Amino acid sequence: MVTIVAAVAANRTIGKDGQLVWRNKEDMAHFKELTTGKVVIMGRKTWESIPPKFRPLPDRINVVVTRNRNYELPNNVTGAASVEDALRRYHANDVMIIGGAEIYAAAMGRADCLELTEVAAELDGDTFFPEVDKATWKETARTEKEGFAFVTYRRR
User: Fold this and answer.
1) Phi, psi angle pair for 143, to nearest 5°
2) In whole angstroms, how far apart are CA 123 and each of 17, 20, 127?
3) Distance (Å) of CA 111 to CA 7, 8, 93, 105, 125
4) Residues 114, 71: Cα–Cα separation, whole Å
5) Nearest alpha carbon to residue 6 among 18, 22, 16
6) What sections of the chain are H helices per DSSP?
7) What CA–CA distance (Å, rounded) separates 111 from 82?
8) DSSP label of 131
9) Closest listed residue to residue 127, CA positions, set 40, 45, 34, 71
């Protein structure tokens, strides 16, 4: 199964200047719970936005998508030329797509599930999550929190 995981503001903002626009301990714990033991696919910019002391993400197979064939990654991290390349390699695994915007856009057509933290605020940013087409995606679960909600969408 291919699942996209993201925290998304009401105006679809996910980032600014290479960083997340919204941080919350409960959301970070939710992210860890969703992704631990799985393959996590991310773009180079997302990889670089993770503080070095937290890279690679522990207890997960980390895959970094980059067009730069000479990009150096630690031995315990796999590089991939594209989202398709990464998905081909790990098709038998539960795969979590964790960003950023280009990677989300490339994976939307292949995803089975969206695990979104929907932030109940419009946030200033320069990086946006793709539009969630309600004709394609059906909300199947929602857990309301103060100022945000954990929402699961499944492909119709």
Assistant:
1) -120, 110
2) 13, 11, 11
3) 16, 17, 13, 10, 25
4) 29
5) 22
6) 25-35, 44-49, 83-89, 101-107
7) 15
8) P
9) 45
- Side chain identity at 112, as an amino acid letter? D
CA pair distance 41, 57, nearest whole angstrom: 11
Stated pTM of the model: 0.96
Tens digit of each residue's pLDDT (9 = 90 or more) over 72-102:
999 999 999 999 999 999 988 899 999 999 9
Strand ranges across the sheet with 127-128: 19-20, 13-16, 127-128
CATH number of 2-155: 3.40.430.10
Q: 118 falls in which pLDDT band (50, 70, 90)?
A: very high
β-pair type (2-9, 61-65): unpaired
DSSP E strand boundaries for 22-126: 39-43, 61-65, 77-80, 95-97, 113-119
Quick check: helix, strand or coil at residue 83? helix
Report the DSSP pairing between strands 148-155 and 113-119: antiparallel
CB atoms within 10 A of CB 122: 11
Domain locations in the chain as residue ranges: 2-155
